[in-house]
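Honest question from a wet-lab person: if I give you the sequences of every part of a complex, can you actually get the arrangement of the whole thing, not just the pieces? Trying it with mine:
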Amino acid sequence: MTQPMQLPAMLRHPVTWLLPAMLLVAGLLGAGRAGAEPYLAVQTGYKCNVCHVNPTGGGLRNDFGIIYAKTLLPAQTVDGTLDAWTGKVLDMLRIGGDLRADWSRDTAPNSPSSQSFALEQFRVYADLALIPNKLGIYIDEQVAPNGSQNEEAYVRYGSTTDGFYLKGGQFYLPFGWRLQDQTAFVREATGISMSTPDKGVELGYEHQSWSAQFDVTNGASNANSGSGYQVTSQVVYTKPIWRLGLAGSFTQSDAGDRRVGGLFAGLKTGPIGWLAEADLIHDDSFPGGRTLAAGLLEGDWRLHRGHNLKITAEYYDPDRDVRENQQTRWSAVYEYTPIPFLQLRAGYRHYFGIPQNNLQNQQLTFVELHGYF
Amino acid sequence: MTKIFAQPSLPCFAMFAAALFTAACAGNGEGLDVNGQPIVPGGGGSVPLSADFESLQENIFTPICSVCHAGASAPEGLRLDADNSYNLLVGVPSTEVPSLLRVKPGDPADSYIIQKLEGHAAVGGQMPLGGPYLPASTIAFVAQWITNGAPPAAAAGVDSTPFVITSTVPDSVDPVTEPPPQIAVAFNHEIDVSQIDMRSARIERMVPGVAVPTVESIPAQVSVSNINRRVLMIWPSHPLRDGRYRALIRTAAPGFLSDTAGRTVAFGEPNSLGETVVAAFEVEVPP
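Yes, you can. This is the full assembly:
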């Protein structure tokens, strides 16, 4: 059994070392991006709203999410020092954040390799509970790199734990797995990810094993046209060792209509959480229309507390009418969470595509530091 | 059965990985060009990377950028597929920083695309979002193309598609926090400059009233960008203030709007003055 680690008195208050450490590393390294970790939900059997304020997952953690991050996720707990931190700074106000900085090296055939340190993202969240579990205002702001950029800002009315709720404002759309890696084929091909917030309204429903959302938004491509809309919907049924979800989206746009359908599932087998998603897209904005397909299969093996090995296989067919143009991507990522609110990630991704395209055959190696609270 | 779910082992995990590795394979690319499209007999085939638009489209915009920036899910409405990219890049203000053109011919340092590719833009993340990022040597080709004046592809084919608006800046989705000095309307074809009457546009400001909203008409002038003749600029006669606006141009004779092939714009019914709304936007200056 893991024993709590004792820290010197000066280090027992998180603010005295965690934040400066994060900022120091951010300064030394340089960038990242936000994302959820749905494998944790699969491994634990929880719904997204068990750990996150947002019922569709990602972003600000709730009371249980903070407790999980302090006690169950890391390899070692830090006794006594973080007990006071719950994410709440006032009765009505909860805050949180994620900072990701990395070093990466990219190699493609017939091209010089490149490497760099980068600050991927420093993102802060806030939730103002005007009426507890009834009326709230949620904000997700990316404050670095570069200038501040709003990702989510919405008013939420109703219960996000049991019953109906309504969101209005700017938010991420619910579609499939909210992966940490927004460059996954299933996220890029569908165009719905945690890098593409949209403006509109969402009607959601949470009850026991069921989660459902129905969204009407502008649609990302309609940003300049002033016309068009997007309808997105998702239904998920969650049991302790498995879950199944169905998602669909329709975008009406001057560029051409776009229809997306997706099926995703999770399964827990002992310490391994499995995630799978298959999406089919038909986009009329291409001459004659084009049908695309993307798939993901991921295994997350919790080797030991605080240690996770993630193996991912992905498939992408950018045009179903064209033969021999498919792409695959294979990733191995090791995630080590030594203490609460700090995670180290190291990974390798290998893209396989048609041989005449160098970029479809590149390799990416990265080491990432992730601080969160 | 329960045991399988409770105690999976390393072999189980390895078998999964091995099965995956052999199950789905990438295409061999036979009969395809560098972007995965079938090679058309007599077509040009692969184009080496150089500082001309056709090469940049073939090597960067289509294979990398249009993975996300295409179709009905294109972020910021910026479609970088071969049919749309030039038109939506050159001489068109950025939606994130409207004071900067996405591509400002002759000035790569002040072109928003370079700032986004290099990762020092004022808003948002470096492109391609999440990486891998373009090497400096590749970005240098884009910068050189801009330095050369950002000319279009040399062999532009005959386009038979209808003459339509592809984007406006500002747009109707996001209120702008600074009064825009001009409104840019981008079309998919080059505008017939000889038909343009510089006084054929005006801007309307919706004035909320107690009972019925009224409309304030603001004279405006139009010009076609020398940088990109697919972009029409509308210049209000005085600075705009807070409010909701729409820009109208005359789409019926005299001074009607058409492309160089004589096609008139294919959208909306003109009002009794022969005008059509081409842009709608809101100005919200923070106090």
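Two things worth pointing out. The first strand of chain B starts at residue 165 and ends at 169. Residues 1-6 of chain B have pLDDT under 50 and may be disordered.
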